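Entry 14. Structure prediction run on the chain below.
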Amino acid sequence: MLPQPPTKLFIHHTDSPNSTDYSLQHAYALARSIQNDHIKNRGWVDSGQQFTLTRGAHALEGRHRSLEALRRGDEHVQGAHCYAQNDFAVGIENEGNYMTAAPRAEHYAALVELSAYICAQFGIRAYQIYGHRNFNATDCPGDQLYAMLPRLRADVATRIGGDPTPAAWTTLRAGATGERVRALQYQLRAHGATVIADGSFGPGTESAVRTFQSSVHASVDGEAGPQTWNQLHRQLARGSSGEAVKAVQNQLNAAGIPVGTVDGAFGPATESGVRTFQTRAKFPVDGVVDPRTLARLTA
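Output returned:
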């Protein structure tokens, strides 16, 4: 059990047959088969996902104590459903394969209700609902279900409030220059890269991007697109420190919001700068650098 709530909700599909058995008994059997597979074949301690939603619209606990953490709202059961994101994300496995078929209406309605409850309990904003493929090189949760995520975010936002529009990342590639490249380089350094933060996307930066993409099981193409930025970003707030904070400070200075020396210490001046920027962007003003704030800063 981690002592803080998750900040993201991930949607998956089981990539299993689209069963026409919608009974509760089938739901129990499915949950047990997933658990057995994850323990015996993958070597995990329990089911990888926190929750399972069946085609019969039955919601079940996956990993042990996930329901307890959800009811409390201030803790997180670390799962094993998305590489490099399990400390931060809660996952829902949806029974079926949704590459060419869409979920049943009853299934989708239950997904909205479960997602809204999870977001409300943990304080996850609707725009922080993602598909597995937003972070790892996978086709999960299937083309059809993935295409429904904007609708899911909007339906959840209707219930819990807020703007469902997700982060809009700018793709950077070889040859790019400027402060947004420097921000990328600081982010790479935060994950152990030795690249110089010089604002020039040259061979060293491309190599660092490829190395990082491989390390987090993202698609390896050497370009810093949405999937790579999603994996690079870690939520930052007052008290944070390090190279990722330098990325924020550098971008705030570049945006005409002076926060002083780029020292990697997220103190009062940096928090004030973030709040000023969020006010200008008409974002929720909380001083926390979530994906939408960083994406707009680096746009």
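DSSP finds eleven helices and five strands in the chain.
Filed with the rest of this week's runs.
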